[in-house]
Design goal:
heterodimer, A: alpha/beta, six-stranded mixed β-sheet, three-stranded antiparallel β-sheet, 10 helices, about 40% helix, B: mainly alpha, two-stranded antiparallel sheet, 15 helices, about 5% strand, flat
Chain lengths: ~270, ~325
């Protein structure tokens, strides 16, 4: 009850798009998340940094219920993905309702996860046409617009395996944008790329950040955090240990573990 | 020999000449005499065998030709083909359902599929066929009723179970068990990230299966299914035991009268081989279709992607 009250108050005071309260998650006896609280406002770009195994990706995947958490709550735009509150009781929803709740949340994966049997264009229009009921002609026009935006206009008929990793990830970003999302989750989008291909993907993401899209980015790219983030979240051991503007957290970290982590990149 | 001589030469001579002679562009593949000898010997034996078969009086090739296109044989062939197609389609549909059940998170549902597969794979096809054919001796009446409650509708089993329905039910239910395992393996072969991406983009589990998972699973489902189809064509010959006049049954009917056993079996063999050959061609087309998006299997895909890879740099 107290958790609900606090998230209600949070929504009333400032229009947080994502509001996480006391999120706990464990795989068996191994605790991965130990009480995460975070509010993300509309239009914000949040970059989550932290050492491997700190729970960043797990937390991100809890937001759209790809991972189930064991305690706490995450509310995205008034919806608690995976659950429904009726008469002050919380029910788990079925697969159909879950699919409906995930609308409006785009996601970009570390391994791209493009559909290899579909062309680039088909990859992008699959969700808009099949899930959101958009007209095919409109979806195709929008897809071409998005491909131009990520600089891949001429690749619309290629299959994913014919593209480089960087190009595939830019297609994946276009696919996430195609559903006109209110929020995009980036799960280590550059970690599977060759070093020389990281730049093109980060440039595309920076471009999005300046256009007022709400983004939550899990990454190891400190440079991206410095240039594009509105706030940087530093996680370690399943907890958020520091949150703040990038110039504060990155140049003048208060927590010793943040300092230790950042020192490895200098 | 030339290879060895060049090897001895190179350290001493050095310079431009040895550089050009080291160019793999001009490398010579030595002739493998043993391999050629083997081919020649095999061809020789094969020719000999064909010659013997064609000139052997006992094969009675004129009888084979006589019966090959006989209406009774052709109608038997149609029965075999029809049974194969219907049983295979039903078997695949039921098999798909069973595969999805088998992968269900619900232990009960998964166990149900497991027990079905265990039973139908574990008992001989022939026994299953005879069982279905003689269903009337066990259950004289088939009825739809509420379990332990009143009966809603009822039929005489002998009226429902003809040789045809017994053959279809027997073959399809047996095939379903094998197809279930093939399809399950196919579904498992698709990267987990694919169903995650589909889920994250708001697809229901059914839609994700239909649009994303199954089309990719088909790549590993098709080859063993071709195998199943071919063994099904031959498996239908078992239905001759329940008086279903398929290809084998129709040639048996002839040689029981004429006693020309070998030539009439050759008629059946020729037709079975003809059908499986056509299926092999069909299978390779289907495999090529489901390999789209896969670099190596695309016609001209290699050249195209190479060009694109260069464009990247």
């Amino acid at each position: 009850m107290t958790i609900l009250a606090s998230s209600d108050r949070g929504r009333g005071a400032s229009p947080a798009l994502v509001s996480a309260r006391n999120v706990h998650k464990a795989y068996g006896s191994q605790e991965v998340l130990t009480g995460i609280d975070l509010d993300v406002d509309t239009g914000e770009t949040i970059v989550i940094l932290g050492p491997s195994g700190s729970g960043k990706s797990t937390f991100l995947r809890c937001i759209n219920h790809l991972e189930t958490m064991q305690q706490g709550s995450i509310v995205v735009d008034g919806e608690q993905v995976g659950y429904q509150l009726r008469h002050e009781r919380l029910y788990r929803v079925n697969s159909r309702a879950l699919a409906r709740q995930r609308k409006g949340i785009g996601m970009v994966f570390q391994q791209f996860n493009l559909y290899p049997h579909l062309t680039v264009l088909q990859n992008i229009i699959e969700a808009p046409v099949g899930v959101y009921g958009e007209r095919r002609s409109e979806a195709v026009a929008h897809a071409h617009e998005l491909l131009a935006r990520v600089g891949l206009s001429e690749k619309s008929d290629a299959y994913p395996r014919q593209l480089s990793g960087g190009q595939q990830q830019r297609v994946a970003i276009a696919r996430a944008l195609a559903i006109r999302p209110k929020l995009i989750l980036f799960d280590e989008p550059t970690s599977a790329l060759d070093p020389e291909l990281v730049g093109e993907v980060l440039a595309t993401m920076k471009d999005l950040a300046t256009q007022g899209l709400t983004m939550i980015v899990v990454t190891h790219e400190i440079g991206f955090a410095k240039e594009a983030a509105d706030r940087v979240v530093f996680m370690d051991g399943g907890k958020i240990i520091e949150v703040g503007r990038p110039d504060e957290v990155l140049t003048n970290p208060t927590h010793p573990r943040t300092r230790a982590f950042l020192n490895r990149f200098i | 020999m030339t290879g060895i001589m060049a090897l001895k030469d190179s350290p001493s001579s050095g310079g431009v000449r040895s550089q050009t002679s080291r160019d793999v562009l001009r490398a010579i593949t030595p002739v493998n005499h043993l391999h050629r000898l083997g081919i020649a010997a095999t061809l020789c034996l094969l020719a000999q065998f064909c010659w013997l078969a064609l000139n052997n009086e006992n094969f009675q090739w004129h009888v084979v030709l006589n019966w090959l296109f006989d209406p009774s044989v052709i109608s038997g062939l149609y029965v075999t083909l029809g049974l194969t197609v219907v049983a295979m389609l039903l078997g695949s549909v039921i098999g798909l359902g069973l595969a999805i059940f088998r992968l269900s998170e619900s232990r009960f549902v998964s166990a149900f599929a497991g027990i079905y597969i265990w039973f139908f794979r574990g008992t001989p096809m022939l026994v299953q066929l005879i069982f279905w054919y003689n269903l009337a001796t066990i259950f004289p009446q088939l009825s739809i009723s509420i379990p332990f409650g009143p009966t809603l509708a009822s039929w005489d089993t002998n009226a429902v179970i003809t040789p045809l329905t017994a053959a279809i039910v027997g073959l399809a239910l047996n095939e379903a068990a094998y197809m279930a395992e093939i399809i399950r393996a196919g579904l498992l072969s698709v990267d987990r990230g694919q169903s995650e991406a589909a889920a994250a983009f708001g697809m229901t589990r059914g839609r994700a299966l239909r649009r994303i998972i199954i089309p990719q699973a088909m790549r590993s489902i098709v080859p063993p299914t071709g195998n199943q189809l071919i063994s099904m064509i031959k498996g239908t010959s078992l239905v001759s035991v329940i008086a279903m006049n398929d290809l084998l049954y129709s040639v048996q009917a002839v040689y029981n009268r004429t006693f020309e056993v070998v030539p009439l079996l050759m008629v059946a063999v020729i037709w079975y081989l003809a059908v499986t050959s056509i299926l092999n061609v069909g299978q390779s087309y289907i495999e090529r279709y489901y390999a789209r998006g896969e670099r190596s299997a695309r016609s001209g895909g290699e050249a195209r992607s190479a060009k694109q890879a260069e464009g990247v740099r």
